[in-house]
Design a protein that fits this description.
By secondary structure, the protein is of the alpha/beta class. 33% of the residues lie in helices and 21% in strands. The structure holds N-succinyl methionine (SMG) and magnesium ion. The site of N-succinyl methionine has 14 residues, from strand 1.
Amino acid sequence: MTHLVELELRRIDLPLVTPFRTSFGTETERDVLLVRAGFDDGSEGWGECVALRDPVYSAEFVDGAELVIEHHLLPRLAGAPLAAADVAHRLAPVKGHPMAKAAIEMAVLDAELRRLGTTLHAHLGAERREVPSGVSVGIFESVDLLLAAVQGYVDDGYARIKLKIEPGWDLEPVRRVRELVGDQMPLQVDANTAYTRTDIEHLCRLDEFGLLLVEQPLPEDDLLGHARLAAASSTPVCLDESIVSTATAVDAIELGAAEVVNIKPGRVGGYLEARRIHDACRDRGIPVWCGGMLETGIGRAANVALACLPGFTLPGDISASSRFYAHDIVTDPIRVVDGHVAVPAGAGLGYELDLAALHAVTRSSRILSAP
Ligand code: SMG
Ligand code: MG
């Protein structure tokens, strides 16, 4: 078995093609931490940390992730041989920081699968080779601007539209988009925790729009509130921020707080835990779909592989690279063809880096030796 010899922590800046506004803020540029794991047999792999610049989606943020990796996570990986399946266990004494942990596990997994000449898709036991692609649409200055953006995504062939909502930007934009796209287009909304329990009656007014689901309307720790909404509303309640592990997923389902689950590998500590959440939801008849964190081609490739598992019965936030970026850092960025994205064929997570493109967007790189 191979030992980890170094971790490279690389920060890149990727400008967004258009600002992306959610209930917690506006992203104009993605500040991404990439992690390269190098082993004593010369093998290496890359992971992507999905933490945002500020701690506004969850408590994690990219500077904090870099610090916790260097001072608290890397020291726990040195010494004994390291397999991807051990990473979560070795890092478990450190509380929280799932996105930082996931980035490391991803890099180790990528190296391991490349060494074995196999794909993440095969490793996870996925069968489908393509999945329907959904797009997440931000909050706009006006409904007319929103409608123009949605029409563009419909023209691009997306199989499902997700609208970001917040108090003051919900019933009217959703009504107008539903009128624009027609009754047949799968449509859903995401509030990123912007409402409270006192809004349950208001949120039930979304029922008339025939939505696939309402995602994370209430704060992440309010499982009871979500259960009350689920009981009151005919629109299925989907949890994103609340689901941080298989245990929280199972509890939320048991409590009636999650009728659908958004699986984001970074939010739950990695692709292996994501796989376990998929299995637990499938056993309980709960549909899942793959969320997105505006990943580069590294993370998007892995997300497609994950979403090929059979329990992912709803389209994911796996839009084309070009939906957010003019220049990705991989040679074959995810594209949407006839509303679908295909799983990359390459070994490891599936991507190949475009080294010139990566170099062009690199702000800093530090190589840390495994102690
Ligand atoms: O990666 O396509 C994507 C973005 C999907 O809306 C998306 N993600 O809460 O689901 C979510 C958000 C979190 C990131 S917003 C900056
Ligand atoms: Mg969400």
